[in-house]
Amino acid sequence: PVKNYMSYYAACRSEFTQCQISLMHDILDNLESDLLISCTPNIFCADITIMGNVEWTDELRELCPHQKIIISKNGSLTLNNTTITVTQVPDPPSIQCTSLLQPNLWDGIYIEGKSIETENNQTEVFGNLFVLNHSLIEFAENGINAPVRFGSIIVANSLIRSCGKIIDARDVWPFSLPEESESSFSYKNNSGSSFPPCGWSLNNPPPTIRITNSTISSDEFELGHARPISQIKVSGSELYINNTDILNNTNLELTAINQAKGKLSIYNGSKVNGFAIGLTKGTDIFSSCFRRGLVVKKSSFLNCNKAIENNSALLLLSDNYIDGSVETNGMCYQSIQKNKFLGSYLKSQSPIESSVFQDNCFENSHVSIEGQNNNTLLYCNYWDSDVAVDIGTVASLPMAWGDVNTSSGNHKNGSSTMYCYYQESTNFPHYVLNIPEEDFDYIGKIEAKFSFSARECLEDPCPTIPPAPDPVWDDPSENLDDLDDQIQGMDDNIAVLESEYTYLTGEAAQKKLETISQLKIQRNAIIGKSLLFLETDDSLSTSNLLSEADTLLPQLSQLNTLWYLHKFSVINSLLEFNNLDDASVFNEVVSWLDEKQDSTILFSLTDLELDTLKEFAESSFGDYTNIVRSFLQSEYDIHVPWADTIEPRSINLSKKESKKTITFQYSIVPNPTTGCFSIESSDGKNAKQPIIITVYNLNGISILKKNLFTFEPICFTDFNAGIYIVKTQFEKSNFIDVQLLVKQ
User: Fold this and answer.
1) Contact between residue 400 and residue 521 where contact means Cβ atoms under 8 Å apart
2) At a CB cut-off of 8 Å and minimum separation 6, what does 482 contact?
3) Scanning 66, 410, 523, 636, which has its CA 20 to 30 A from the CA of 595?
4) Cβ(405)–Cβ(453) below 8 Å
């Protein structure tokens, strides 16, 4: 023996002295050989398998090295004031001798799947883990795992520390049919989605992970392998964190939270401290099967290099205290309000949709804008820094920072002067700002006293301490009916203003156009908020809201779904005539994967294949390749950050400008439709042409194929509401056109 734990020394000793070794060998030489043969340095213990409902209450469970707790798909385990640890816990608990702990680590907790059992008209979901009431999980090499399917993982008022990773959970639905779908329970009405039945119902809720009033601590000790970068990694499930501290007590560059394809909510005094990346949020699926988006409210990120990296299309940051950079990459509806940013930057890269920055405090921090941010409102913000807004390297950037009737409310370095802009422009409702790498300013700025009215702003937007938990916290929610009424009210108001604009000229027309522009941004922000708080059981609203959203949003969701379904040839057909460079790179990726003809390749990529995929992801930065980067991050923990600067899109896919910017030769009329539509020429020509129409659902399955002519109605009233792919082939020219159709 050469390793030892000798606590009687003043300092930790991990090796015997040469004298001790010699003395032991003298004794061993005189022992009988049968005693040496019977010596077993490690105790072997069988894995613990959980079947049915099992509860451990007020227990101390000391597990052997490499021992597992396996929760079968027919089992659920509840820990109630229970500790799970190793057989020999070092004393003191701070683990002075960390190098001696590794051989004693137990393996972890594994959830094998999910099942539903019905007895006496009572349905119960299995495949759960509940860690409750001051329970403790420590010294597990692999923490909590759910590699394929699970019911719920709940951690409440408990502590998880000193594990190789905390949670690694994936739910593959709806990308493969779960076993419980074959049972006899009733599906919820899924009429608003063209997916197969999600199976979500009161008796079969979606998978969820909830961590409340707890502490998650990554601590320093040796592992038999490299520690995973992401300590909490979740894919295909909602992740909810409330009043929880997530701490990095190592010298390693770790990611606290890595989540994709499901809503991520962090609330109420939660704290992420000491990580290289505090939170990375991947892309989402917009269907009734998933909740979606990222909400961070009244929480803090401290001592993080990059606090938040968001690739989701829905973002709400409110009342937070953030030390570390925040980045939003690609297509996004974002609302960033009443936050304090310290010592870094807030970057927005080509969100293309509504971005509202309001009542934020930037202390030694600034806003960095790249690419197309042409639906942006920035008002009532305060900067205590040398640079307020870095425009980046884009040659011309259309912005809307406050209208000509109202002061923007933005101010810097304690100055009480507030500005709004006024500039002659033929490009209204947005004007062109072209001051790269310069300080925040308005072109043609006017002091607030000359404004027609003053915008109401918070008197003190700069909190001095991170938000504390609220003992009577109530999760934020939105009344969708009220939001719908707000959208309708804005539509009515915009229609009136547009009618008034037709009778105006000069300065008056200019002011009216700017007011209309900002109303449209605020209207679209409400659409984003509605999608963010939409529940999984309201599939019809999902479809309706997507029809109101930017046309790029359902397209990206569709491509993301087809990606996970391995429908690479369908992606090729959808992107065949997309002339964006980034779309072409994504098309190259799926063509490369399609050649392998492996239905499971995405989850079994070799190191060489991963290197190739990473090279693709680094070759272009945009919304389409964002699917690849998000996939690498969420499934393989391979982080490919967006480049500092990117080229602007060659086509603006904003819904409101789609008729002018998307160069489809033919249009689907009407779109959305209640059941019938026709293919009509976009240039107004009425000559009929023979065409072949093929309608696919989002799984890439053909549901309708018909030979007919342009302007001739096509009806599919028997199919569910949702989003469909319409492929039009023109017999004379062999031209193929692929578009999305929303059926209400």
Assistant:
1) yes
2) none
3) 636
4) yes
| Among candidate residues 570, 574, 560, 573, the one with its CA nearest the CA of residue 602 | 560
Tell me phi and psi for residue 495, to 5 degrees. -60, -40
Phi and psi dihedrals of 627, rounded to 5? -60, -40
* First vs last C-alpha separation in the chain: 73
> 437: which residues sit within 8 A by CB, 6+ positions away?
390, 391, 392, 393
> How far, in Å, CA of 253 to CA of 273, rounded?
12
Strand, helix or coil for residue 358? strand
**136-140, 155-159, 337-341, 574-578: least confident range:** 574-578
The 10s digit of each residue's pLDDT in 268-320 is: 999 999 999 999 999 998 877 778 999 999 999 999 999 999 999 999 999 99
CA–CA distance, 203 with 393 (Å, rounded to integer): 53
Sign of CA dihedral 282, 286, 290, 296: positive
**Coil, strand or helix at 558:** helix
C-alpha–C-alpha distance, residues 248 and 256, integer Å = 8
Q: Are 302 and 273 in contact (CB under 8 A)?
A: yes
Contact in structure between 362 and 386 (CB atoms under 8 Å)? no
Q: 280 by DSSP, 3-state: which?
A: strand
